[in-house]
Automatic annotation (TrEMBL), chains A, B:
InterPro entries listed in its UniProt record: Aromatic_CoA_ox/epox, Ferritin-like, Ferritin-like_SF, PaaA_PaaC, PaaC
Gene name of this polypeptide: paaI
Organismal lineage: Bacteria, Pseudomonadati, Pseudomonadota, Alphaproteobacteria, Hyphomonadales
Pfam families: PaaA_PaaC
Protein name (database record): Phenylacetate-CoA oxygenase subunit PaaI
GO CC terms: cytosol
PANTHER family for this protein: 1,2-PHENYLACETYL-COA EPOXIDASE, SUBUNIT C, PHENYLACETIC ACID DEGRADATION PROTEIN PAA
Xref: NCBIfam families: PA_CoA_Oxy3 (TIGR02158)
Native source organism of the sequence: Henriciella mobilis
One record GO biological process: phenylacetate catabolic process
Amino acid sequence: MTEAVLSTDQLTQYLLRLGDDSLVLGQRLSEWCGHAPSIELDLSLANVALDLIGQATLLLNAAGEAEGQGRDADALAFGRDVMSFRNCLLVEQPNGDFGQTIARQFLFSSYQFALFRHLTASSNTAVAEICAKAVKETEYHLQLASDWVVRLGDGTDESRERLVAGFDWHWRFVGEMFEDDALSEAVAAADIGVLPSTLKSEFDSRLEAVFNDAGLEIPELPRSITGGREGHHSEHLGHLLAVMQHIPRTYPGAVW
Amino acid sequence: MTEAVLSTDQLTQYLLRLGDDSLVLGQRLSEWCGHAPSIELDLSLANVALDLIGQATLLLNAAGEAEGQGRDADALAFGRDVMSFRNCLLVEQPNGDFGQTIARQFLFSSYQFALFRHLTASSNTAVAEICAKAVKETEYHLQLASDWVVRLGDGTDESRERLVAGFDWHWRFVGEMFEDDALSEAVAAADIGVLPSTLKSEFDSRLEAVFNDAGLEIPELPRSITGGREGHHSEHLGHLLAVMQHIPRTYPGAVW
Amino acid sequence: AALVDAFEARVAADEFIEPKDWMPEAYRKTLIRQISQHAHSEIVGMLPEGNWITRAPSLRRKAVLLAKVQDEGGHGLYLYCAAETLGVGRDELIEDLHSGKAKYSTIFNYPTLTWADIGAIGWLVDGAAIMNQVPLQRTSYGPYARAMIRVCKEESFHQRQGYEIMMALMDGTEAQKAMAQDALNRWWWPSLMMFGPPDDNSPNTAQSMRWRIKRETNDQLRQRFVDATVPQAEAIDLRVPDDALAWNEERGHYDFGEIDWEEFYSVIRGEGPVARERMQARRKAWDEGAWVRDAANAYAAKAAARKEAA
Amino acid sequence: AALVDAFEARVAADEFIEPKDWMPEAYRKTLIRQISQHAHSEIVGMLPEGNWITRAPSLRRKAVLLAKVQDEGGHGLYLYCAAETLGVGRDELIEDLHSGKAKYSTIFNYPTLTWADIGAIGWLVDGAAIMNQVPLQRTSYGPYARAMIRVCKEESFHQRQGYEIMMALMDGTEAQKAMAQDALNRWWWPSLMMFGPPDDNSPNTAQSMRWRIKRETNDQLRQRFVDATVPQAEAIDLRVPDDALAWNEERGHYDFGEIDWEEFYSVIRGEGPVARERMQARRKAWDEGAWVRDAANAYAAKAAARKEAA
């Protein structure tokens, strides 16, 4: 197979998509720390957040290297404004209640698990190595989220309602994760990345299986809201960044 | 009367105290915009916020002039970190529900009205002029807050409970507003400022009168929490600043 | 039938209809729908801009924005009062908004992503609103017309402030220019949609025009907006995101590209990017404020009783 | 009485008391109070540091802090489990915390104002905690002693991380140095208070020492902490905010100034600067999480029933 040529910018942008997904969701989950419904859940959510921030660090460092302008993960995480972020809209959604958080986590981890499994075979060594480690973490995230989808779906009337409401908030952001565009076609052609649309059937089967266990029905999905991959985000991301970036922006150049 | 000599730094610090009080409370109140219990209240709260931000602009510009290092109100509002803010702890408290917001407003406007009335006679022309205008605004804020204290206190059981809870959150911050220190003694001696302790009896009479109208009892006040005037704030201020300062810090040097 | 004829004659003669006057039920209903939709738009419209008050980049911009959003609340208030003269209560209208029965302008279901969006909204959204509203100052229903006179005066002020924000950005750094262009890219088409569906697909237009509830068609207003706005964009080196845009010497108007009506109807159906956020915020404010409104009513009743007793 | 004698003899011989063993009721109660207070401190202690996770200044610091706060939750968990072996349920203990009946370390009622506070907490608060906890690895109650072994291992790691944050700050800009010094100024005295009231005002100490629930007095531990910490401050050019601080050659210890016990007892009474915030946050998490815990219980019951039926 002839390897297609990928521009530096394309590789950078692709790595930013991967890294920003993990970073933004990690930041969101870390908001739970100390406030979860039980100590056990506090530990679990912190664990997932930690994994995601670890992945983000590796992926953004790789993005910085690809870019070749001397920016590392910190520079990229704390030095870009909202329109330069490339995460999907799902991960920037507010935590809401625990049902909303778990719905988001299940949808995202299902996507990310399918994605990372493919990327372990990436022709880009850095991507392959990072994803080989990350996929194990993601498998655990997915298991945790699936367990809770079942528990809440098949728990009490209230928990089912809250979980359903949590999914209702998020369905409109599912489509974006599986949308192909010029960049994903280019990275797929170069065997570095994968076409998101090809991950959809794995996602759908898992969704069906877990919803079946939880006694939930998958509704007809609403129109997709998209834009995150091009930097057109919801109103939530700007507020998240204001908090996250405050100290590095207040003390430019300082080392911590 | 011999006018005591006031250092540049003392005058600057005093103006920062005045300006930061207005700025921080104005910022807090502006969080309500679009989310108040009724349209009428939305307009009222926005009005108070507007007045306070206007006061802050004048007072911080005066502080910048006193300082003489070329910083204007914007530079001071958006360019200082939390420990350089000199506002009292009361104004940085979270909005909570409307009862908590009104309790805070009543306590603060009562203090500020007494203060500004005295400062209209300041020997510093800038202070006197700013306060001559501001005192009229503050009188309206105080009237608004007093009316609502009475309405909520003498409204329903729920409104009374919520109002009482709102005051309970704030009582510990009352003492700080009336605390004298070396700086307030210096500005009072120079006839520029006023000793906060001398404002307390006016505050107390108003509190008593309004609580009487509202059918509320003034509890024994808890130990004062202090520190704001020296830059030792609660945990709330840092989060407020992260949001408020995000854009100017993200685009240093840009003009808007 | 004599009543109807007399009513139609008064309207045709450009007289104002007042609350105490007889009016056809369909006229009343159409007015309630239109005025309340307009009121809802003002109130929901506080949210996208309100999102930036706490992050405005200077104290002056913060104050101006706060005052602007406050004005919108004021407009909502005038308009609810105008609707109330038609015999419908504000609470009822608000319930209809929250239940999704009543609509509001689709434009407010788009997010404000950067500070430039505040400029774009003032310039384009308030600009489009003015185009819609100026003729309504002569609408046939008196209270509505008088409310619109107050609204229009303030809106044109807002439009200038918005354009001024865009000017400042285009006069700024590369990052600021990019922000401004991106905002125009995102707000241009939704602004054109604010004038509603094309005339050949707007069944109520004829009746509303006859009743002088409307005084110009959607397409006429849209054309006027394009004609007024394109030169403003050019004046500050902004590029309108429409490849089909061109001055048509013959028509004396700009030609412009096809609007994505699928998008428009999706947003009408409640599928706008932040429609859920908007309704969540409104419902939350309303529900969490219930105890305050109850307290005010209870206090007013007590005070009245005390006055009676005295 | 024979039981008591046998119990006391075992304790005196440094044997571990286990859950199934007989123990005096006062011993059991003292242990429950001490262990649960310790557990509560871990859980409440997540809040001041948790306040900075979303604002940590680098990704590495964010991850380290998140892991640390997570460890604290883990410690809380071990300790609640140890308390449960004494026949009291976790929910009951937590209710006591939320009602104000149970106490937690006063130190967590001070706010974290800057990033340097995260360094100061790790260095001083975890440092003081270790001084308190190391002897507890040999406390007489087996489950408590074993929990403490795990806890101590992690705490000393946290203490080093905190000191490392302070080192980085003192190696940084003037603003960073000022931040670090200010944090030490604010946390120093509250840290000394963590060892509890002076021995001559600590009525339970003697009994607790005899039962080997405690193994050193408050003042002994406090002195050890001062002796260990002052050289660390000096090593990175931080000034301990105590004019009376001086090395006493004769005692072989640092002399230090008088602690403001009024402040200590005020904070014990719940008047700490952010005591309300701490309790509000804990209650909110607990109350809003009730439906999740209920759902997990309901699901577990259903699953068990299904298994039974199968």
